[in-house]
Every structure is written in C-alpha cells, then in structure tokens.
Design brief:
By secondary structure, this protein is of the alpha+beta class. It has two domains: 2-65, Ribosomal protein L11/L12, N-terminal domain (Ribosomal protein L11, N-terminal domain, 2-Layer Sandwich), CATH 3.30.1550; 70-184, Ribosomal protein L11/L12, C-terminal domain (Arc Repressor Mutant, subunit A, Orthogonal Bundle). Helices cover 45% and strands 12% of the residues. It has eight helices and six strands, in the order βααββαβααββααα. The strands form two sheets. Strands 1-2-3 form a three-stranded antiparallel beta sheet, with helices on one face. Strand 5 (132-134) and strand 6 form a beta hairpin. Helix 4 crosses helix 5 and helix 5 packs antiparallel against helix 6. The longest helix has 41 residues, at 164-204. The protein is flat, with a radius of gyration of 35 Å. The protein starts with a strand and ends in a 37-residue tail after the last helix.
C-alpha cells in the first residue's frame, strides 16, 4: 500500500494526518518519521512530497522522496516563506538568471520540458506568479530576453552561479525595491486609517443636531417643552354708584 504525504524536509512530526494514514497499517510510526527525516534532510525548510510504500504482511516499508515543487524551490532559494499576494505590485525577491538555470536543471526530470531552455521558461513563469524579479527585471520581461537570445551564452554553458559582483548588485537593487514597497504600504495603511476615521466621524454626527451639554457628539439634546403663554384676564370696568 502506498501513502503519499507532503512533509517539511528533515522535520516530519507525529500528527493526526500521519496517524490516520499510517496507524491502521500497524507499522512503527516513530521509525517511519525518523527514516523520512533522514531521507529529506537535504530539503530542510522546504515542503517535500514523499511516498511510503508499506507491505501490510511484513510491516516493512520503503520511502521515495520526490523533488519539491518549483514554487517551493524558488522560495527556498530566496529565503521567502510565501509568494506575493499581489505579484504585480509587491516583490518577494530578486533571483539571478544563473540560479534560474540551476533550478531548471534540478527540476527538469519531472518537468514537461523538451530541453533546458523550455525548463528555464517554466521556472521564469513561476517567478512571475510568485512576484520574483530576475536580474533586477520583471520576470515576464526575462521571457522576452530568452527568446531574443540575450541569455544564449548562459544557457548553452549551463552557468548556475552568478559572480560575487552580480550577487551584490542584485542584493542592493532589491534592498531599494523593498524600502519603496514598505514606504508605499505604510502610506496606504495611513490613508486607509484616515478614511475609516472620517467615516466614523461622519456617521456619529447628525446633520443639524445640537448635542446636549455633556452628551456625546451626535446625540440630540432633549426636546424643548413649549410653555403656554399666560392669558390675561379681562377686567370689567367698575360701575360708579
């Protein structure tokens, strides 16, 4: 029987899902966890697909580790926990084209790509959806650069490591991008807070109403009580005797 799981590399832990799937098979779950962690140690910090093939009769098992998804590998490369929720506006990192080649070579056996160039384009496409820059550019622009032959040399020679100078340049560029993003996010949050405050103020102030002394703004004062005007009694003229 085969059981498929997604585990954190080198850090699989006991839990309800694992117990439900492996418990009924009668195998030593503690040993399974230990063996999976040993097999996935090289993918520490990354979610990894694993397949556990169990023989119900002998209670023996074998573990097969699959390569993490492209998105997981990119996030690990950048040290990012998650992708961008708004990839067109918010970027999570700046990847060198050389490292894109490296990721393409790593995933190529499991990708539907006829050659390295095609595999690279698949990696670049994932960078677009995650909000990742490549060589200080929008990832979608890199796709055009590949087609125009700008990266032919790197692809042909399968260069997987950028120079130290290029690494520094990429880091400095992204630091500037990150600073601008943080300032923009702060300004947007302040503007939203001001807008909400204005709405609250408008809602609590009734047009034309006068607040009673000590009453909260917008609380109408007590209704005025009309006092009937005094009626003069008509005096009858006094008759002279």
């Amino acid at each position: 029987m085969k059981v498929k799981l997604i585990v954190e590399g080198g850090a699989m832990k006991p839990g309800p899902v694992i117990s439900q799937q492996l418990g009924p098979l009668g195998i030593n779950i503690g040993k399974v966890i230990s063996d999976v962690n040993s097999a996935t140690q090289s993918f520490k910090g990354t979610n990894v697909p694993v397949e556990i093939d169990v023989d119900p009769k002998t209670k023996s098992f074998t573990i097969k580790v699959f390569s993490p998804s492209v998105a997981e590998l990119i996030k690990k490369e950048l040290g990012a926990e998650k992708g961008s929720g708004t990839p067109n506006n918010f970027k999570i990192g700046n990847l060198s084209f050389e490292r894109v080649i490296n990721l393409a070579k790593t995933k190529m056996p499991s990708l539907l790509a006829k050659d390295l160039r095609s595999a690279i384009k698949l990696i670049v496409g994932t960078c677009v959806s995650l909000g990742v820059l490549i060589d200080n550019k929008e990832a979608k622009l890199i796709e055009k650069d590949i087609d125009s032959g700008i990266y032919d040399k790197e692809i042909k020679e399968e260069i997987t490591e950028p120079s130290e100078e290029k690494k520094k340049n990429l880091q400095e560029f992204f630091a500037t991008v990150k600073d601008k993003q943080e300032k923009a996010a702060k300004a947007a949050a302040e503007a939203k807070a001001a807008e909400e405050a204005a709405k609250v103020a408008a809602a609590t102030t009734a047009p034309g109403a006068t607040a009673a002394p000590g009453a909260a703004p917008g609380t109408p004062g007590p209704a005025a009580t009309a006092t009937p005007a005094a009626t003069k009694k008509e005096e009858k003229p006094t008759k002279k005797k």
